[in-house]
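Lab notebook, bench 4. The sequencing result for the construct came back, and we need a structural model before the next group meeting so we can plan mutations. Quick request posted to the team channel:

Model the 3D structure of this chain.
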Amino acid sequence: MAPYDLRTREIVQEYDQHLGPVNTITFVDENRRFVTTSDDKTIRAWDYDIPVVIKYIAEPYMHSMPAVTLHPNSKFSAWSLHDNY
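Done. Here's the predicted structure in token form:
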């Protein structure tokens, strides 16, 4: 995942920890952080503009998460899983 500046046509930062395609990018904490999900069945949290994972979530029972949305008060979120149940 690499944010791209359309004005300069350059990559401005690269976040390369996921081992599969990134499915979602959800900004939280007044856009100071964001959470990503991937086909590698992990959730990763990042500080904006720093390409180091601050939280990593992966469990053997987890599945790919193709959709995430925040509650309007930003204290809760809903996640969709590909678990075929």
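The longest strand covers residues 22-28.
Will bring this to the meeting.
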